[in-house]
Amino acid sequence: GQNIDQPTEMTATEGAIVQINCTYQTSGFNGLFWYQQHAGEAPTFLSYNVLDGLEEKGRFSSFLSRSKGYSYLLLKELQMKDSASYLCAVRDGAGGANNLFFGTGTRLTVIP
Amino acid sequence: DGGITQSPKYLFRKEGQNVTLSCEQNLNHDAMYWYRQDPGQGLRLIYYSQIVNDFQKGDIAEGYSVSREKKESFPLTVTSAQKNPTAFYLCASRPRGQGTDTQYFGPGTRLTVL
Questions:
Q1: pLDDT digits (tens, 9 = 90+) for A59-105
Q2: What is the β-pairing status of strands A29-37 and A44-49?
């Protein structure tokens, strides 16, 4: 089976840096995704990691360590619009399905 | 514009009634998915289809049914057998392949059963 853990809530100050952690256990790891979801809206894709290391994309970076079953999403220069839920999802290639399994999401609140 | 559409955005139904949620995509994606999202829980997979005329159960398929008669369409029926149907339902699609191909989500349908 799959087990994906991430903190339920976080608060950070505008302009600061925040790191959202995700740990996972899965039998057929085939990539890790981060999505942003504003309340009542669809998740939107932020980043993808399949090899160890850091992927940087503007103010957002994502890191993966496959041996530790660990990833984090780093948000720099926080803006009020970054207040949202951040979903960690692991793609499992077992059986060829390549389905995504989601954590519960981390609700980030950015305060002035 | 290419994308995924779900309608309606809000849906109310009486207990015991079946209801069908629509999902249409014009992205030419092979794979389509239905998820359910409840407060405090992650997205949970209901059904998925990797190709036309084929679909598979996800983790919480009981009380739901789907069809995939056309590549563009993947409707979800919430039956009266689903014991707690009130939730936010998300449809997604994905090109069939590996790599960075992510799933793209529709805007969702919030179903409330009264």
A1: 999 999 999 999 999 999 999 999 999 999 999 887 777 889 999 99
A2: antiparallel
Contact of A33 with chain B, judged by CB distance below 8 Å, is answered with: yes
Q: How confident is the model at residue B98 (pLDDT cuts 50, 70, 90)?
A: low
Q: How far apart are CA B106 and CA B10, in angstroms?
A: 14
Question: Is A23 an interface residue toward B (CB < 8 Å)?
Answer: no
More confident residue, A2 or A39: A39
| Range B28-56 average pLDDT | 93
With an 8 Å Cβ cutoff, are A42 and B43 in contact?
no
Query: How far is CA B6 from its chain centroid?
Result: 9
What's the farthest any 2 CA atoms get from each other in chain A? 47
Which of A45, A97, A105 faces B102 most closely, judged by CB atoms?
A45
Tell me, yes or no, if A80 comes closer than 8 A to chain B by beta carbon: no
Tell me the CA distances in angstroms from A19 to A6, A10, B19, one per residue in order.
11, 9, 41
Q: What is the mean pLDDT of chain B?
A: 91
SS (HEC) of B13-52: ECCCCCEEEEEEECCCCCEEEEEEECCCCCCEEEEEEEEC
